Amino acid sequence: MSKKRVVLFDFDGVIMDTETIYTEFWDDQGKKYLNIENFGKIVKGRTDDVIYKKYFTDHQHLIPLLDKEIDHLENTMPFNYIRGAEEFMLHLKAEGVKIGMATSSNNRKMEIVFGQHPRLKELLDYIVTVDMVSHPKPNPECYQKAMEYFNASPKETVIFEDSIYGLQAARDAGAVVVGLTTTSTSDEIAYLSDYIIPDFDGITYDTIREFLD
């Protein structure tokens, strides 16, 4: 009997190269409204609601404006694959590997993404958005939910993540954790990662077998 292998991906900064855009957006908001430098790095991997609750409790009047700006950003931003990501997923699919995604993005944003990239939706066997969980990352609920769907144990699962909060969620889910240096340095994510890669160039099914065996 062949060994079960499940691969789970974060979305922003792992499948698609979007984190730079979000970092610039939140950097601007931090300077404008909170007098905080490098705010984008501070909140990287956090949901909008968590950011609002932690940093904008005294600026409630700004939240509708920020929501509107985020909606505009996500409706107009380019969604470009991280190097090698699409090819890697196609390769996994051809090998019969189950592929899931657990993202802090909401359903509305993902519909925009799938409108631009319909094949991505076809590649994913299961999708967990922030709208489907009670506790967002760094809580491991999203990854636990995906593993439960596939009836896979943590030892049968590889998770690809980039942000500190996402990596913490993956680590606490008990899976093999692969950190991408798309948004953080290798030194910053080393303590949360079993393996570290710059992108998916050259990553294959055999790589997954090595990670799990």
UniProtKB/TrEMBL annotation:
CDD domains named among the record's database cross-references:
HAD_BPGM-like (cd07505)
* One Pfam family named in its UniProt record: HAD_2
Which keywords appear in this protein's UniProt record, sorted alphabetically?
Hydrolase
Per the UniProt entry, the signal peptide is none
For molecular function, the Gene Ontology terms on record are:
hydrolase activity
Q: What is this protein called?
A: HAD-superfamily hydrolase, subfamily IA, variant 3
Q: Please tell me the species this chain comes from.
A: Bacteroides coprosuis DSM 18011
- Source organism lineage? Bacteria, Pseudomonadati, Bacteroidota, Bacteroidia, Bacteroidales
